[in-house]
Write a structure and sequence with these properties.
The chain is an all-alpha fold. The protein is built from nine helices and no strands. Bound molecules: fe (ii) ion (2 copies). The site of one fe (ii) ion (FE2) has 6 residues, from helix 7.
């Protein structure tokens, strides 16, 4: 039986346990087969979630989706890497759920797929962006200084100053969100960091 045929057979089945302690190896082969299909569509779900930012301006001159696409467009046109552009596109995806810590949501989504430096850039962009507005709200615009000397400090300054803080311009000719989908699919194609990777870097439960 080929792996494909085996998977198709497993996809017709469901595990039967009501408690995990009762599960059999076959139950987990079934679940792993279903998860391979589900995980393959994670990029599509991420884009769908990003679209939730459409129409919510939050007092800015552009909505949060336009801000995201404009940030990514500026990074793309400045010849930044595919992974950087995808981080730019998704850096504010957590605005929907993380009203008080939105960068952490993007970090959770991106963590299996991007480099440590890009992840740090996304994680810290909220503090580094504060250089551009914290002083208007009585906060310390130099809060980023606590990270002076960090390997990704300059990278994060550049992201906020060259791309993120500029991306509120209603007259800017942004690319279409659809133009970024191939890059998102490429970055999300294979996890690099996950507790579900085995010693060979393969997802557990994969049979190919
Ligand atoms: Fe942000
Ligand atoms: Fe932003």
């Amino acid at each position: 039986m080929t792996n494909l045929t085996e998977d198709q057979d497993l996809l017709t089945q469901s595990a039967t346990f009501g408690a995990m302690t009762e599960a059999t190896p076959l139950d987990w082969q079934i679940i792993a087969a279903h998860n391979r299909v589900f995980a393959n569509a994670v990029a599509e779900r991420v884009i769908d979630h990003l679209r939730l930012l459409d129409g919510d301006c939050g007092g800015f001159a552009v909505d949060r989706l336009e801000h995201s696409v404009q940030t990514a467009t500026r990074a793309y046109r400045a010849n930044r890497s595919e992974e950087y552009v995808v981080c730019s596109l998704l850096h504010d995806i957590g605005d929907t759920l993380g009203s008080y810590n939105h960068p952490d949501i993007a970090v959770a989504v991106l963590k299996p797929f991007v480099s440590d430096d890009h992840l740090w850039m996304v994680e810290k962009h909220g503090i580094f962006q504060g250089y551009n507005f914290f002083h208007h709200l009585g906060l310390d615009r130099d809060m980023r200084d606590q990270f002076l000397g960090h390997r990704a400090y300059d990278l994060t300054v550049e992201f906020c100053q060259e791309f993120d803080q500029l991306a509120f311009d209603p007259s800017y000719d942004s690319m279409q969100l659809s133009e970024f989908i191939p890059a998102v699919e490429a970055v999300f194609a294979e996890p690099k960091n996950s507790i579900y990777l085995d010693e060979q870097g393969q997802m557990i439960g994969t049979n190919s």
